[in-house]
Amino acid sequence: GINAEYMGNSNRKYIVNCLIAQNTGCGMHSAGACYWDSVGDATFTYKVETPSIICVTTVYGLQVTLAA
Prior knowledge:
single chain; mainly beta; 3 strands; elongated
């Protein structure tokens, strides 16, 4: 996941996706894709479900490399 030390690095770009849906008992599928660096990039997903709604939030932390 993304920890406090990771969040403090200014060479990152953060992308946040939040999906909110009515909880009707049906299935739900969500997908995302990006170019990934397993050393410098990270992701964190948090889900909240109540009898009436489902909320899934995903944060992507991507390392930005500046060209010289």
